[in-house]
Amino acid sequence: MAASPTAGVPVCIDDFEAIAKSTLPAATWGYYTSGANDEDTLRDNREAFRKYKLRPRILRDVSKVNTTTTILGKKARTPLCVAPCAMHELAHPDGEIGTSKGQPIYQKQPLFISTEDINGSIVNQPKMAVADLGSVMILSTYSTKALEKVIAANSNPDTHYWFQLYVYKERGISEKLVRRAEAAGFEALVLTVDAPVLGRRLLDARNRFNPPPYIRLENFIEGSATGDGTLDKSESETFGETFGNRGDAGLTWEEGIAWLRSITKLPIILKGVLTAEDTELAVKYGCAGVIVSNHGGRQLDGVLATIDALPEVVEAANGRIEVYMDGGVRKGTDIIKALALGARAVFIARPILYGLAYNGEAGAKLALKILQDELESGMALSGCRDINDINESLIHFPGHQPQPRRLGYYPSKL
Ligand SMILES: Cc1cc2nc3c(=O)[nH]c(=O)nc-3n(C[C@H](O)[C@H](O)[C@H](O)COP(=O)(O)O)c2cc1C
Ligand SMILES: CCCCCCC(=O)C(=O)O
Question: Could you confirm whether the keyword Ribonucleoprotein appears in this record (predicted)?
Fold first, then answer.
C-alpha cells in the first residue's frame, strides 16, 4: 500500500483514511473502520483484489472513455455507487445530505474544488476534470437525515436512490418506512440479509461505543421505533443488543421475502449474498438483484472476500438478475476488476465516510471524484474505451484461459 500522508489534500482513498484516523474521535473511528472478531474478512476484502492481475490491451484509441451503463435498466453515468452506511453525521454535520449532494453533477467545464485542508489553508484543485457521476446512492435505514430530505437534496437527474431496509419484529415499522420511501421517490428496496444480529465488533466493545446524544436517527422521529429519534436504548443494553432486540432474526425466504414482495411493487435487492445457493433462491423469490457483500467484514468473520465470492454468484445468476458487489473497493482498478468478474455496479461505504469526515459535502464529492478519475484512467490504461469493453479477458489467473464475456454473465456463454 502506498504511504499516506496525515496532512494535506488527499489524492487517493488511503489518504482520506489516514486523515480520518487522525481527526475523528477514537470511538467513531473505531465504529467506522472496524470489522468483526479477528477482522480476517475485513483484511481479505482489500487484499484479495491484489491476486487478480490485469491484462491490458494497447493501441485502442482511448482518447475518450465512456463509463455510462445501466443499473436496473436505468441510465447511470458510472457503475461507481454509494453503499448504505448508518449515521453519516458521526463524520460531519452534512451527514447523508452531504453525501447525496456530493454526487458531482455532470458538467463539460472543469470543476475547481476549493477545499480546506486540515491545517486550515484553502486549496484549489484545478486538475479536476469533473466526474461524470450520476449513479445509485443507497440510503441506510439508520441515516441521520430523514429519507425525504436526502432525496430532496439531489439535483442530478441521473442519480438514483434506493432505500436500505432492516425488517423489524414489529412489521408495521418496516412497512411505514417502505411507504415513505415509495412516496419520496426511492426506486428500489435493498434488504440487508447478513445481519440477523450485529457482528461482534471488538473495537466497539472495547471503546464501549455508543453514538453521542446529538445523533438522531431521523427516519424514526415519526416512526416510533426509537421514540424521539435518538437510539432510545436502556443503559444495560449494548449497541448490538439494541439492534438485535428490534430486528427480526427470524426472517425467512418463505415468509419474510414473500411479505416484503406483498407490500411493495418496488424492485427488491438482497444485500449480503455470498453463495450460488442463495443466488438461486433470490431468483426464485423474485428479487431483482443481489449485492455480493459481507457487510465490509463487520458481520460473520471468516467468510470469503467479496471479490472472491463474486464469480460464483455471477455464474449462478446467469444473467437472470443483476449482480453488484461491495467491500474493500478503494481504487479505480478495484472497480475494473469487479466489473471484469461480472459485477454490474460496485458500491463503496467507508471511502464516503472518510470523505465526509475530511470536508463534509465537498469531501464526499472529492472522494467520489478521485475514484471516478481512477476508474477512467484505469480504463484508458487497460485499453477500454467503454464500460462494456471490460470483461473477463482483462483478468489474469495463473493457468486460466480468459474468455471474453458480457457484463453480468459468468462464465461466457457467448
Ligand atoms: C460504519 C458503517 C455503517 C454501516 N451501516 C450499514 C447499514 O446501515 N446498512 C447496511 O446494509 N450496511 C451497512 N454497512 C455496510 C456497508 O453497506 C457495506 O456493505 C460495506 O461497508 C462495504 O465495504 P467498504 O466499507 O469496504 O466499502 C455499514 C458499514 C460501515 C463501515
Ligand atoms: C442501532 C443502530 C445500528 C446500526 C447498525 C448499522 C450497521 O449495519 C453497521 O454495520 O454498523
Answer: no
Residue 326 annotated as binding site:
yes
Per-position DSSP letters for 102-130, written without gaps between them:
TSPPP-SSPP-EEEE-TTS-EEEETT-PP
Q: How many residues does the chain have?
A: 414
pTM of this structure: 0.91
Query: What is the enclosing helix (H) or strand (E) of 242?
Result: helix 239-246
Distance 32 CA to ligand 2 centre (A): 10
Q: How many angstroms separate the CA atoms of 65 and 44, rounded?
A: 31
* ipTM for the assembly: 0.99
Please check whether residue 315 is in contact with residue 55, taking contact to mean a CB–CB distance below 8 angstroms.
no
- The answer to whether 141 touches 219, Cβ cutoff 8 Å, is yes
d(CA 55, CA 303): 28
32 lines ligand 1 (CB under 6 A): yes
DSSP label of 299 = S
Q: Please, is 125 exposed, middle or buried when counting C-beta atoms within 10 Å of its C-beta (0-12, 13-18, 19+)?
A: middle
